[in-house]
Amino acid sequence: MHDWHRIFDQNLLVPPHPQRTRQPLKESTAFQCVLKWLDGPLIKQGVLELLSEVGCHLRVSLFDVTYRYFFGRTWKSSSRPAEPLSRQPARIAFNEPLYFHTSLNHPHVVAVVEVVVEGRRRDGTLQTLSCGFGILRIFSHKPESPTSTLQDKRLRLYHGSPRALLHPLLQDPIEQNKHMTLIENCSLQYTLRPYPLLEPVFHLLPENLLVSGLQQIPGLLPAHGESGDALRKPRLQKPLMCYLDDLFFTLYPSLEKFEEELLELVISDCFREAGSPLDVGALEILERRLCVGVHNGLGFVQRPQVLVLVPELEVALTRSASFSRKVGSSSKASSGNQALVLRSRLRLPEMVRHPAFAIVFQLEYVFNNPSGADGNAASLTSLSSLACMHMVRWAVWNPSLEAGSGRVMLPLQGGIQSNPSHCLVYKVPAASMSSEEAHQHRRPRGSPLPRTHLWDQGCRFPSWRLPHHPQLHATTRPNPHHSHLGALCPLWSQGSGGKLSRASLALLQSAGFPEILDANRQPVEAVSPTDPVKFSPQKEESDCLQGNEIVLQFLAFSRVPQDEQAAPWPQTVYFTFQFYRFPPETTPRLQLVELADAGRTSSASLSHILAQIQKDGSFDVGSPGFQRKYLVDPGFLRPGEQRWFTRYLAMQTLQIDVWDGDSLLLVGSAAVQLKHLLRQGRPAVQVSHELEVVATEYEQDAMVVSGDMTRFGCVKPIDIHTVVKGQLHLTLANVGHLCEQRVRSPSSLPPSRSRVISNDGVSNFMGGSLLTPGGPRSVKNVVQAQKLADVDSELAALLFTPPRPGARGPQGIGQEGDAVRRRKLERMRAVRLQECGSEPGRHGRGALAQQSLHAQHARDLQVIAAYRERTKAESIASALSTAITTQHTIHATLGAAEFFEFALRNPHNAQHTVTIEIDNPELSLILDGQEWRYFKDVADLHTPLEEDMFHLRGSLPPQLFLRPRETAHIPFKFQTFSVGPWASAQASAELRSEKDTDAGSPCKSSTMPTKHAKVLFRAGSGKPLAVLCLTAELQPHVVDQVFRFYHPELTFLKKAIRLPPWHVLPGAPVGTTSEDPPLHVRCSDPNIICETQNVGPGEPRDVFLKVASGPSPEVKDFFVTIYVDRWLATPVQTWQVHLHSLQRVDVSCIAGQRTRLALVLRGTQTVRRVQAFSSHPQELTTDPRGVFVLPPHGVQDLHVSVRARRPGSRFTHLHLVDVDAHQLVASWLLCLSCRPPLISKAFEIKLPAGGGRGANKRITYTNPYPSRRAYRLHSDHPHLLQFKEDAFQVGGGETYTIGLRFASRQRAGEEEILIYINDHEDKNEETFCVKVIYQ
Asked: Which residues form the NPHP4 SK-like domain (predicted)?
């Protein structure tokens, strides 16, 4: 409201002369006037010597020469230093655009430009001097006026002040008047032209209002570029469709008295004007009108709507009884104070999300206009000729479009203050009215008083509705959990940790938890979580201990005092979380062991420690706690990632979800800041936290009509509250380690992080030389000899397979078979010769052996030649392709764009048009020059950048022109929004299985999925010039926020998550301004609708989700990435969303009375031992209660009994769990709609507060039935009230005395306790209410 009043007060316009407005209206014409520079010695040297801080500015006003009348509003430019006017050449540059539109198309309507100098005197006061003025002709006498030429013009300046134009001697043409004296050598350079681009925003700018292009106009989006001229190419904000329902006015002291005194005032005015008295009966009220319009502080956006108001009594007589009751309930309880009611629904399509947009209401009365003092009118031919209208009240309302529907009450205003219609309004009398009639309408004591400073109580809007937004329209649907406007809870950004007390520290130390040691086997230095952290990135980077061993030690989980509505304390728990970019972690089930000394300590915060459960179900108290370690060293981090890791520790919080290990229900969540893990040069550091485990409970977030079923659009507000469930005791540690510099093989070396990949001189062709690596020659392509089976298994099979008899083969195959036989015989002879020694006459046999060996070699060579001839084409093509192929590996994370350039060289002496073909949609070319420049600036890459580099052909691959021997840098980016199988590694609470208790090293990056992409650069002839084979090794990503939603199965979940202001959002760059940048969101699941809308400055940001839930008990996990750069380069926030699908069951019940229903259980593939668990066991019980057998493929009923203790709408979770495998078999979401019972008796007692003794009371109950009955007693506050007997029997008509025991409580106040008396079927017979006042 403050913005609207400020803009309205600063832009009050003087209307044109009344004679000018009576002329025929013409179409309004828009103009742009650019005041460029001022030339000439306007300021004398003496003025500059007398004043300090001298500045010069221009003022422009509209002036009507005919009537010597200034109108509109004087526009003032920004001030410029005046020293340049005292130099040579004297010139001051302004270059300020000025915009306006007017329908007064007349040559005598001009603009007066005044040059003003201001400075400070020696005493510090501000002195303003007028140094001259000029007359700028907007319209000329020529028919083609105004001109559309954009030529610079010079405006001659005159001595004096523009106030001289009001002198009667200055007649048109003013420029030729003898009293006007020109200033020599002084002029103002300007351009004036019609500006049709301003016509679409005429409704936002009032006529004859001079505005600067640098001025913020409500309803316009900020300007693009650096000029800041929002009117140069104006862009409208998106309008919203809004509605007003059940609008009515209440006038003080009553409608009858208000109109009676209004008639007296009108008659008094007529008497003063006409000079003759007027009879009261001669003046009648013909209509009561309401004018409603949207106002942006400058003027009405559209013409206000005129509607007719009728008294409430007339509505009650003409409508049905139900409507009469509705109106009667909407107005005051007093029957004598009826209201003026608007019977129709009001539609406002021009509303905009801007703080200066407001709705203006004007209450007008139409009276008949008597022709004379006698009060007799002439002929009543028309109402308009006989009616006079007076505005009596007005109001302005700046609605909060984010608040949703609800009631609004506004005070009505009047008097001489300015109003949007610039009309006279009857003043509002003071609250101390002297009229006896007013004193008779004073309210009785105890009822709410009206506003003391206003005569009128105001106008109300019981239902203010937001527009039907595409993502928000589901808020009007009666389905719970269907749409909810949530907000990022500040708990996770600030952490919920606290400092442990000395008693808790003593208990933890005596429990025997393993001590955390540093690399030298010494105890780790402990710090307090309340100590401030001084973070120095340079100290972290210069630390010699570059290895960081992060230790999470879960110690204890204790319960906090809660009311009776809380669920029973779990026996076992487990935790889920995700640290940095390691895979999500789920701990084993841990047993809660109660401490024997917990009750005897002064601090009761520590009650249960954690112990690991063995495979046989036992647990060892001797080794309590659970540890999880993460090793973050240079081998795990990518090059340059160390600073990101330290920034993560300094700024992020770790969210830990706590689950019940038996029922698999979420107990709550805790958040801990990681900034104390920064070692800052220390060898190791540890910190112990006591974290609050908080559960968020939602009331029914659907459209629930409360009280009045006929009132359209009444929405019950969302009730979201948090409950502290317990205290988690956690120790975090960071142990530094020296990193061993081990020499690794070349195959395991990390790939190059260069952003530029070149194919020039890079070849994977290893050549065919068999030289050993230690040979005398140094050649580039050297390869060692290898076994033939390893090189080519197909050829080896051909050579070592003996030919079949009669098989036909290559030429000479028969001779080769004989040679083989002879060779074998010669080998046998050679062996015998070697055994017997060398003897004469054996040389012939050696020659025969040599001949056989040569024949075998010839046969092998022929086989090799035939095989090579067959595979020659394929081998040559593969070798050539390998020669032009470049291999590159990148490390990518979810949502982050990996940018690189490929230096493609044309190896030919001819030019080519290269077609770029990519086989993976996640790898793309950067086609926009601005996007390319952005990524180069981020990567600090100084390679050449070209505009319009690619020739685009619709859906065909882009093309690139290459000159002979030219090298071009082609930009690529790889960006994936799909998650691999590691994302589901976190065993969800619903389908959880047992895990081993080994706290070994975390998952290696080798378990991450790997993606491949191939880019083929093909010349115009179709032959490839180069091939890029890209390997993307996906890495786990950081999760900043975790959301968990429970929703009915096979329906759509619609959520709106509100973001905090940008400058406080975790992940925002340091030093950012408060201006919100554009917001973009993407989702990892393409089947989920995830979007946001860019709103005006200062408006809140919402991220909208629409997800289809699966069958129960399925859990759908997905990620949402948020960007603030238009190119989606790096996400500033990554959210993980868990959607739990549950079977929905609607239960309607009465508080205190048991309601029974049956749920159908269907067996699975095998026999299971199952048990049912409820989130509210005090209100919901099941039959069978304990463990029972669920047969395979069978159908069985689970009987559920609900007895709600308090009325209202809320949600209860019911889980069916396999007790052996600890898996969820089925889950239900019970939507309870509990009505309050009928209270038959009410009592009131007073008790002392502060933990004193309670009180014993008695009440009686009479059996209204003639027979003997049995009754049961229940209470909605069992911790404050206990019964002497929970059940009793009483004869027919007899009276029974019920004994009550009231317990005291610590704090003072009041509490209403309900006592439910139920029959043997647990149906409510009577309900007593006891109001207990604790003093």
From this structure: 815-883
